[in-house]
Amino acid sequence: MESRFEPRVLICSECHEEFAFTVAAQQYFAERGYTEDPKRCKACHMRYKKSQRDQHHPEPVAQNSSDPE
Fold first, then answer.
1. Going by C-beta distance under 8 Å and a sequence separation of 6 or more, which residues neighbour residue 7?
2. I need a surface site. Which of 2, 15, 24, 37 has the fewest CB within 10 A?
3. Furthest-apart CA pair in the chain: how many Å?
4. Are 27 and 7 spatial neighbours (Cβ–Cβ below 8 Å)?
5. Distance of alpha carbon 30 from alpha carbon 24, whole angstroms
6. pLDDT tens, 4-56?
7. Would the pTM of this model clear 0.85, i.e. be above it?
8. Do the Cβ atoms of 17 and 11 come closer than 8 Å?
9. Rounded Cα–Cα distance for residues 56 and 69 (Å)
10. Contact 19, 41 (CB under 8 A)
């Protein structure tokens, strides 16, 4: 079966570096119903996701074991 996908080079919207949008990544996007190409390279995507998690779910404050309850 011939693939309708070909490797492409995209530009990251964060760092403005080129990154590969591989055939496997395109298939992954298509299987999940994504209709737009990724905007960020993998490194910037991971930083973005972490910042979103940190913003919405801050780390719990450690309890000081010497504080009386």
1. 20, 21, 22, 23
2. 2
3. 68
4. no
5. 10
6. 999 999 999 999 999 999 999 999 999 999 999 999 999 999 999 999 998 87
7. no
8. yes
9. 28
10. yes
